[in-house]
Design a protein that fits this description.
- The structure is a single chain.
- The strands form five sheets. The chain has a six-stranded mixed sheet, with no helix packed on it. Strands 9, 10, 11, 12, 14 and 15 form a six-stranded mixed sheet that branches. Strands 16-23-22-18-19 form a five-stranded mixed sheet.
- The protein is α+β, with helices and mostly antiparallel strands and about 400 residues long.
- The chain has five helices and 23 strands.
- Belongs to the FAM187 family.
- Keywords: Glycoprotein, Membrane, Signal, Transmembrane, Transmembrane helix.
- Pfam families: V-set.
């Protein structure tokens, strides 16, 4: 490609990008803002990332400001912006438990919240720095702590719908994920969130279906939320089997064929493998690169398939190795038998591996972010408080006995 062709190509790309920006601006010109502010209901599972588009704004507004309130009309309001509309946050840099003020990003007037937590549930407003609102959302982040898994291969069925007078509580399932493995028996699942139907909902909240919102919506009165509290999210699983698509790295294989001798070709791993050394008896959490809770993720140890039917969190309360609802692999109290290569599948493709080594030597710095350290400190503090309470109780009893024995009669 010569200089003239490259110049023409860059001009065409720049024109297309400018056309795309103009098209996005024309959307706001064609979409008038509602005269009366309504709230769109949206529900997600904990640890998911979501996007809230600002569907309308005045033409003269060049940068939007997002606001967050826990409850409508509450005095405490969070401002989610740098007042320029250019907040940039990458999902890979977000840690679990971080405050929402470091877990959001604003791109093309849309608000992105990474790794949402139940505490992020509430009302989100799109507006200006002066406090004028254009569009609003009612977001419900449902916790996965009490999520119930249902295995269709074992004949199990999802929760039945609940009826409390005019209140109807049910589970709404998402689409099935792709098969998490290829070439061998895999698993696929669908996430189900709690929804309810009632004629007693607030009219300020826009609903996809008539009188239907998620169970944690601000449109639901408190007395109805209490009745739907026991209807937890569900995870429906079933087996699957799909063939693998052949992906041959022709350049790499040709290079190794040229360099290596016939019959002595070096071993070439199919996926990138990282090495990690873990201390004996310590816990470990392994994440699949680029995976999110809604993705189909699978784990293997060497040639052993870790199926969720046996290794999903909550299947057995005494499991030392398990997979949580966020697709992370947990190893509690690492043992020598845990050594090996742990492979990660994402959306039916094996993408990475971790070679785990276990050692009983070496010094590790003490960190309060470690779950074992925090648990030990909590147990020590509880023990200290119990001993202190017993000590004070014994001395109070002795003082009372001494007082009543020395002064048995208070009458003149």
């Amino acid at each position: 490609m010569n200089l003239a062709q490259a110049t023409v190509l860059l001009w065409v790309l720049g024109s297309l990008q400018a056309f795309e920006i103009v098209e996005k601006e024309n959307i706001f010109q064609r979409t008038p803002c509602p005269a009366f502010l309504m709230f769109d209901n949206a529900a997600y599972l904990a640890d998911m990332s979501f996007e809230l588009p600002c569907h309308c704004k005045p033409e003269e507004v060049s940068a939007v400001v997002w606001y967050y309130q826990k409850h409508l009309g509450s005095g405490h309001t969070k401002v989610l912006t740098d007042f320029d509309g250019r907040v940039l946050t990458e999902a890979a840099q977000v840690r679990v438990g971080s405050d929402m003020l470091v877990r959001f990003s604003i791109r093309m007037f849309s608000l992105l919240v990474f790794r949402a937590q139940p505490e992020d549930s509430g009302l989100y407003f799109c507006g200006t720095r002066k406090g004028d609102y254009f569009y609003a959302y009612d977001v419900d982040i449902q916790s996965s702590e009490r999520m119930v898994a249902t295995f269709k291969d074992q004949g199990q069925e999802p929760f039945a719908d609940e009826y409390h007078g005019s209140l109807h509580v049910f589970t709404t399932f998402w689409e099935w994920t792709p098969c998490d493995r290829c070439g061998v028996r895999g698993e696929q699942w669908r996430i189900g969130l709690c929804y309810l139907q009632s004629p007693d909902l607030s009219p300020r909240y826009r609903k996809t279906l008539s009188d239907v919102v998620s169970c944690g919506s601000r449109a639901v009165p408190r007395q109805l939320q209490a009745k739907a509290r026991d209807h937890v999210p569900e995870l429906l699983l079933r087996s699957c089997l799909v063939p693998c698509e052949k992906m041959i790295q022709e350049g790499v294989m040709a290079l190794f064929s040229y360099v290596a001798k016939v019959g002595s070709r070096p071993w070439l791993p199919q996926v990138p493998i990282q090495f990690h050394q873990q201390r004996l008896g310590h816990g470990l959490i392994i994440s699949c690169p680029g995976a999110r809770p809604e993705h189909a993720v699978a784990w293997d140890k060497d040639h052993q398939y870790l199926y969720r039917t046996q290794y999903l969190k909550g299947v057995n309360g005494s499991m030392r190795v398990f997979i949580d609802h966020g697709n992370h692999l947990h190893i509690r109290f690492t043992q020598l038998e845990d050594r090996g290569i742990y492979y990660c599948w994402r959306q039916g493709v094996r993408i990475a591996g971790l070679r785990l080594g276990v050692t009983s030597r070496g010094r590790y710095p003490v960190s309060f972010s470690s779950a074992e350290i925090r648990a030990a400190l909590v147990l020590t503090l509880i023990g200290y408080l119990l001993i202190t309470a017993v000590f004070i109780t014994i001395h109070l009893c002795r003082c009372c006995c001494y007082f009543f024995r020395c002064y048995p009669n208070f009458s003149p």
